[in-house]
Amino acid sequence: MEKKDIKSLTLAELKTEMEEMGQKPFRAKQLYEWMHRKLARGFDEMTNLPLAMREQCGVSYTYTALPIVAVQESAVDGTKKYLFALEDGNVVESVWMRYKHGNSVCISSQVGCRMGCRFCASTIDGLVRNLTPAEMLDQIYAITRETGERVSNVVVMGSGEPLDNYENLLRFLTLLTDENGLHISQRSVTVSTCGLVPKMRELAQEKLQITLALSLHAATDEKRREIMPIADRYSLAELMEVCGDYFAQTGRRITFEYSLVRDVNDTREDAETLAALIRGMNCHVNLIPVNPVRERAYVQSDRRAVEAFAETLQRKGVNATVRRELGRDIDGACGQLRRRFLEDGKRADT
Fold first, then answer.
1. Residue 266: which residues within 8 A CB-CB, separation 6 or more?
2. How many Å apart are CA 68 and CA 82, to the nearest integer?
């Protein structure tokens, strides 16, 4: 019989498991706190639980505790990029960033990605598999243990399309924000999507207080199709409709992520078209000078073009900011560290 992933269970589910194991109900709460508050790396660390119970748990359940394979630290701003080993031999990456308002961690939701966005390293080799809720959580837990500092904000914007791993994402959010665990506020969590319209509609129905960030990157269907294959399935009109519905259902404004690529989507005309597209929406535009990926031909817009783009949006009444660039002296773009690790492994095998 396949073992259950104990760190992916809710407290209510864990209570049922412990009752079936013949344990007293309070043991579930102790176990849950060890996993999600004290961030234990295994059952052997749970010293106030009976040894026989810990041994029984080791037989009945898998326990996710991700080993750190590599860490890159920026000499410029202290940003850290982590590469974690998964039990099946895959690797996944996360980023830790320090801000004035607290520490933020950007996690991955999948090993690889099948969305095919042209400027992203994560998608070059396609999707390998979804991450479990425990694997998503333990990226945060492992970084918290390594840094010794609390994480205040979580961004699901690393490798993978979170809404393509929908059920595991919802369970992850439940565990992350549970008052019996790290208890990170829903308002301190951002989930990014390239625009899976049906799943965006489902997420709106959940009425969560998270921030939904849409990777837009172009203001016309024609240009967006050049950059993002998902645009062949869902038009900008559909996206704008579902974004409006999301705000109506949750009261949370949408964030539009817009990566600026030189001579592709960074002209004044692009800015004016974008302003016209989202005029009247309760939203914020996050302008991102694109991280160069060596397998792609895209080049970052220069500072003057970035500032001019932002000024045009602001003049048109659009709330827009340029994202502070962190970790530019390390493998900054999503998927780069993992890809380099895989390539080094291939070279070692030849």
1. 260, 301, 305, 306, 309
2. 7
Work out the angle at residue 285's Cα, subtended by the Cα atoms of residues 284 and 289, and round it to the nearest 5 degrees. 150
Q: What's at 345, amino acid-wise?
A: G
Structure tokens at 93: 């990456």
Helices within 98-220 (DSSP H only): 133-147, 166-177, 197-206
Residues marked active site are found at 93, 334
The type of residue at 151 is: V
Quick one: which of 280, 284, 201, 179 has its CA closest to 246? 201
Q: Which residues pair with 108 in a beta bridge?
A: none
Q: Which two tokens stand for residue 14?
A: 């864990």
The reported pTM is 0.92
How does pLDDT run across 270-319, given as a tens digit for each residue? 999 999 999 999 999 999 987 765 555 677 888 999 999 999 999 999 99
Q: List pLDDT tens digits, range 167-204.
A: 999 999 999 999 999 999 999 999 999 999 999 999 99
Give residue 130's identity as a one-letter amino acid code. Answer: N
